[in-house]
Amino acid sequence: MSQVISFHPAKDFKARSRSALDDPGQRKNFRGAMDFLQAKRSSQFPDQEELQSLRELGAQIRRYSLAHLPRLLEQLETKLIANGIQVHWAQNGDEANAIALAIAQRVQARRVIKGKSMVSEEVEFNHAMQAAGIEALESDMGEYIVQLANEKPSHIIMPAIHKTKQQIAELFTQKIPGVDYTEDVDALIQIGRRELRRKFADADIGLSGVNFAVAETGSLCLIENEGNGRMCTTVPRVHIAMTGIEKVVEKLEHVPPLLSLLTRSATGQSITTYVNLISGPRRAGEIDGPQEVHLILLDNGRTQAYADEQLRATLQCIRCGACMNHCPVYARIGGHAYGTTYPGPIGAIISPHMLGLESTYPLAFASTLCGACAEVCPVKIPIPDLLVRLRNEAQARPGSADATLRGSGAARTALVSAVWRLWALVYSRLGLYRVTSWFMSRGRALSPTEQGAWTRSRTPLIPAPKRLRDLLQERKP
């Protein structure tokens, strides 16, 4: 079940967006889902003073963790090793998959059962395992649905949010032998559970993500609602956890505030059904748990964001999806239009570091800069400010002080550069400005009716018949 998707947003992002906008059914589904999630989150934060206090605490914890990231990663590694967990470092997705594949081949694994993990989506883990002849099966219900459909998740928390119950019913009927068509949601969930239940015992490796890694105790914190995460990390004889290097926090006491923010912001729950703390493999005398636990710490562009004082705020993200749920753009085009693992506002600011600005810069422009994402972010990431920064980077002149990222200047064209140079020339010389504005006002009838992207949804820009200078002169006594 390959889940390969080509990352070419610079090439066809606009086309995918227009296609999504032309699908009224999808737009209706997403609008309804976003309204529901917004209401759920709002119900969890009735006290605005408590919300703002908790957000500030969460932001401070994340800023502190990032400020001390190198030290905390070293401390985490030391504690994990002392606890019996094997630590691996991966610079990119290929290295992460190679590490996981080496572990799988050493234990002669034929099947990997997976809990929810966006990092594994980020590195195309399933495809890498399949290419080596190893089955990688999703056990999260939403991930299982999109895997059956050979698709990518369209939301970081609810992967199959773009699917209707009718589409899921048809999918199960086509893909799962012996299943009759039903639109009963409870029945569909039970079908998926029955199909997956027997896979856990047959799996050689369980793979999971990590919500937070605690340096103080060497613990991996994993939250979920379905119990599949706990099964993945305890039933197979080997557990591989995969996470980004930014997920570390210093102390165990830092986790509860972040969990409270994460669960309430993501799904409108006061707490998720399962909160797992993993601090090592099975000990002598214990009757369950894996024989081996591995943690793969992934960079994949995160150090680029970390190295920049402003862009470092990107790494504060706790993957709640609230910014997506409140984004007017995401609500209309959905996640697949973005063409990246992480869609929506968070995807627009983190994907350029992972994939390069040259292939992701249109995402920074897919925003109204309304600020809704920043208002609901539980850890106060200034997303609009970062979007503006990335827009400037995309237009930066190569070699200039503004071009600091991989792929900077990708949106810069000779025509646009010439237009701005001409604009600067006109506006820096008073006489030239007066002559130009006179000709524009008198020649307004020659204004083109087609003005690129502007006139796709707006009326053409036509100069006024008289300049402000002319109007003021007419008012003189």
Give your account of this protein's structure:
50% of the residues lie in helices and 10% in strands. The longest helix has 21 residues, at 24-44. The chain is α/β, with parallel strands linked by helices. The protein contains 23 helices and 10 strands. The protein has 2 domains: 9-303, NagB/RpiA/CoA transferase-like (Rossmann fold), CATH 3.40.50.10420; 416-475, no CATH class. Helix 9 (165-175) crosses helix 10 and helix 16 crosses helix 19 (383-395). The radius of gyration is 26 Å and the shape is globular. The model is unreliable at 1-6 (pLDDT under 50). It has helices spanning 9-21, 24-44, 48-67, 69-82, 93-106, 118-122, 125-131, 141-148, 165-175, 185-202, 228-234, 255-266, 302-307, 322-325, 330-333, 344-355, 361-365, 372-376, 383-395, 414-427, 430-442, 454-457, 468-475, and strands spanning 86-90, 111-114, 135-138, 205-208, 212-214, 219-224, 238-244, 248-249, 274-278, 292-298.
In round numbers, the mean pLDDT is 93
How much of the sequence is in beta strands? Answer: 5-15%
The CATH topology assignment of the largest domain is Rossmann fold
Gyration radius over CA:
26 Å
Q: Specify the helix fraction band.
A: 40-55%
Which homologous superfamily in CATH is the superfamily of the largest domain? NagB/RpiA/CoA transferase-like
Into how many domains do the coordinates divide? Answer: 2
Backbone shape:
globular
CATH class (first level) name of the largest domain: Alpha Beta
Low-confidence stretches: 1-6
Distance between the termini: 81 Å
The SS-based structural class is alpha/beta
